[in-house]
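During the first year of the project, the team set up a workflow for recording each protein of interest as an amino acid sequence followed immediately by a discrete structure-token representation. This format lets reviewers and collaborators read both layers of information side by side without switching files. As required by the reporting guidelines, we include two representative entries from the current panel. The first entry is reproduced here exactly as it appears in our internal archive.
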Amino acid sequence: MPALRVSVLCLLAIATTSAFAQQQLEFKWPNNAKIAVSLGYDDSLASHLDTAVKDLNDFKLKGTFYLTLSHPSIANRIDEWRDVAKQGHELANHSLFHPCSATPKGREWVSEANNLDTKTIAAMAQEIQLANHYLHAIDGNNQRTFTAPCGDQFTKNGNYLPAIANLFEGMKTHIGPSPKNIASLNRMDLPTWAPHQVDGKTLIDYVKSAEKTGTIASFTFHGIGADHLAVSQKAHRELLAYLSEHSDKYYVDTYLNISLYLKRAQQQP
């Protein structure tokens, strides 16, 4: 009987490995690209409208702008944000008020009213859904993606992300390295990198490193040449130039389009 049990376990292991290998073999990014690249920009910053959009357009690349709807740029420059969507970039959800946990060291800036630690799952779901309504009023779209503010997920009564997952086609949920392989890539739980004060070579090296995985190199930028947690415009443009020059290797698109591509691939028998 022990020998039989070992044999069965071995067969299961072989079958699992075979299925994984088949999945790896069959999946292909558009135009046989090695990986997808998602260029995300958080917090509705002025430097996104002043600099990042122009840079992307110069290199004919598409980005995803994760808007915090309470930011002054939404009310003051709403027509410009509407134009960003018309140019083929994604306007995505980054909440109304950017609630974060006040617990980690250095989070003194988190206000009492905006402390995720004291909010409930229901309150967060309501806020995120309302943000989607505001976004629809700007761009008229019904499909979009989400990035969790600060990468924080837990309210006082649990993780709020499962309660909002049905609102989105994809979610960037935490800081971390690219998924190791296609089998472990979850469009609803994507790790991302938030670079700041790095040069163009470091940004490019991140993409090159992700090539080994065959999955996604996800960027979460904040300021571009200005604003908080900034990357210089020079570094930003060096990355975009590299991606543009190697378009045969990299599928660069909005995270919405990347997510929809993955969704269709996963639905195939």
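The second entry, processed by the same pipeline in the following quarter, appears below.
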Amino acid sequence: MFRNSCYLILFIVTLFSCNRELTQEDLPDTEHLELMVNEMEEEILVLEKEIVWLESFYQYLLENKDSLLEKAEKNKYVFEGSFSNNIPVEEGGLSKMIISSISPDPQKSLEEVYFTNDLDSAFKVVYDRHGIIAQVYSNSPMQVSRVYPPYDAQNLMEPDINLIKYNFYYEADLEHNPEKKPVWIPEVYVDPAGKGWIMSLVHPVYDGSELSAVLGIDITVDEILHRFLEVKDGNYLIINGKGEIVSGKSSAIEALSLPPLKNHVYRETIRADNFRISDFNLFTSKSKGVREMAQSFIFNKENKFVFTDEYNLTSAIAYPFDFTDWYLIQINPPLDGK
């Protein structure tokens, strides 16, 4: 009788343990996420030093504008309409130039091309130093664009493009950036130069009190995914403060009740012509639990979340970035923390 009672108690305890609901205390800590974020930020933030150097180089060009115009290699670029006619290859060391047809003063725009031609070599130096960089560029209120490496602008851009209407220009202007410092644009967007979904670091260049140009360095979502997330075991994704997925492994994204991925591959999805990042927003997920998770991480600043009544989701952990409004999330982390 006593033995049977012991067996019964043991059975009840075991049954209770097996059915015990998961709690945040059961989840691993976020130290490994912190290490991943630090690794990403270490590589990404060095680009701030590069763009500050480019700004100082541009200042040198402005200060020596007259002498540079006198000795400028004016046949370096030949324009056909709005576009330079050089072939888009890196080996020549040339950028791709655009003078939009809506330039307020085409002659002054052409002079700007002449006295800033030395930017080509500076852009190439920065581009070659960092494999994560997709392109380096400048845009100006004179509607002059210089992009390295060169690309097929004639087939990708309109001749009357208004450069100052894009966020990679206006996010650096005085209204949006009164401190005149390097600015990371946290929202990824479609690059008009055909690089796909990108994020940008921009920096204004002032000539006295006038905004003379905006410098930019771009990295692609594809590169973030390849360099930092795909090499790790686990279901990882990065979101911004709006709940939009910046980058992520397909296994993590497909678990979140968002639109289906093209061939179950996030890389192919972000390259598709009909891709809209707004479709991949955690706050628009069909899953109530996913929406609550986004609320927990972004607005409540919590770092652990337990799902209830979700077929393929048990839990998630998160860690914020310092350099911009991003969060690294791991879906269904192993409970042993490994």
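For the second entry, the following points were noted during internal review. Residues 50 and 126 are 7 Å apart (CA to CA). Confidence is low (pLDDT under 50) at residues 6-19. Both points are flagged for discussion at the upcoming steering committee meeting.
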